[in-house]
């Protein structure tokens, strides 16, 4: 089974104010940036007319130093227009206006090789179509990262999380529909500890995957359904 590597960062308070209303300018979210730098960069953003948000769903720009598998990053890659280095904010401060962000996209070939993905391609794919659009996802209770974190990642990618096991009749209908359209309608994300809880899905012919299907999927903005099976 594939190794799952993920860093979950708790939300940190900063001394700088955070806009509570959506600004007209960029709405920026940070991940993987130390709090002292966040405070300084937040002040610059607000002075330039932008805003710093705490909800991933509200962000237009993610600022980080590298590709890092935090929950924020895994959510933002599905919804943000840009994933940028802090140098974008610093250059904007020098110019006294938000400069073209296209030159400041995070470049992290090391992580791209590890995760077999290309950040610019992933952002383009996410803009074209949400990865999990029209897909239901059921997550069992002992999956890591936690089901609540998985729910956030899945919803940002356009998916709908099921909170209860569907009836056998509904599962049969979903399976038939998936076969007809040739694409997945229901994904079951589980782990070795919970595998025995998946008998209803297995009985109807559904594959059971570990969380890496979603985690790697959102990084690549591509589902590799033949991989990560339990």
Question: In a few lines, what is going on in this structure?
Answer:
With 230 residues, the chain is of the alpha/beta class. It has helices at 35-47, 71-79, 87-95, 109-115, 119-128, 147-156, 168-181, 199-203, 212-220; strands at residues 27-30, 51-52, 61-63, 82-84, 136-139, 160-162, 186-189, 208-209.
Describe the structure.
Keywords: DNA damage, Nucleus. The chain is α/β, with parallel strands linked by helices. It has 9 helices and 8 strands. A 4-stranded parallel β-sheet has the order 2-1-3-4, sandwiched between helices. The protein has a 4-stranded parallel β-sheet with strand order 6-5-7-8. α2 runs parallel beside α6. The radius of gyration is 19 Å and the shape is elongated.
What does the secondary structure layout of this molecule look like, with pairings?
Layout: E1 27-30, H1 35-47, E2 51-52, E3 61-63, H2 71-79, E4 82-84, H3 87-95, H4 109-115, H5 119-128, E5 136-139, H6 147-156, E6 160-162, H7 168-181, E7 186-189, H8 199-203, E8 208-209, H9 212-220
Parallel strand pairs: 1-2, 1-3, 3-4, 5-6, 5-7, 7-8
Helix fraction bin = 25-40%
Largest pleated sheet: 4 strands, parallel
- Rg (CA only): 19 Å
The termini sit apart by 7 Å
Strand order of the largest sheet: 2-1-3-4
What is the number of beta strands? 8
Query: What's the overall geometry?
Result: elongated
Low-confidence stretches: 1-21
Q: What fraction strand?
A: 5-15%
Helix count? 9
Kindly state the mean pLDDT as a whole number? Answer: 91
**Structural class of the secondary structure composition?**
alpha/beta
SSE order, as H and E? EHEEHEHHHEHEHEHEH
Keywords: DNA damage, Nucleus
Protein name: PAX-interacting protein 1
Domain BRCT: 25-106
GO cellular component, one term: MLL3/4 complex
């Amino acid at each position: 089974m594939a190794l799952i590597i993920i860093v979950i960062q708790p939300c940190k308070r900063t001394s700088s104010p955070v806009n509570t209303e959506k600004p007209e300018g960029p709405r920026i979210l940070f991940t993987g940036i130390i709090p002292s730098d966040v405070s300084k960069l937040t002040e610059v953003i607000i002075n330039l007319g932008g805003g710093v948000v705490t909800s991933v769903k509200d962000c237009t720009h993610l600022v980080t130093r590298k590709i890092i598998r935090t929950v924020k990053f895994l959510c933002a890659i599905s919804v943000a227009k840009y994933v940028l280095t802090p140098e974008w904010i610093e250059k904007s401060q020098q110019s006294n206006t938000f400069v073209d962000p296209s030159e400041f996209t995070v470049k992290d070939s090391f992580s791209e090789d590890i995760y077999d993905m290309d950040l610019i391609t992933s952002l383009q794919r996410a803009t074209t179509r949400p990865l999990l659009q029209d897909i239901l996802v059921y997550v069992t209770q002992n999956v890591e990262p936690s089901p609540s974190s998985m729910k956030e990642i899945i919803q940002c990618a356009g998916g709908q999380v099921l909170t209860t096991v569907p009836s056998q009749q509904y599962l049969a209908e979903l399976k038939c529909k998936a076969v007809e359209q040739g694409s997945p309608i229901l994904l079951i994300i589980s782990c070795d500890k919970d595998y025995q809880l998946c008998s209803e899905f297995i009985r109807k012919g559904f594959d059971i995957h570990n969380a890496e299907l979603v985690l790697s999927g959102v990084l690549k903005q591509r589902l590799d359904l033949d991989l990560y099976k339990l």
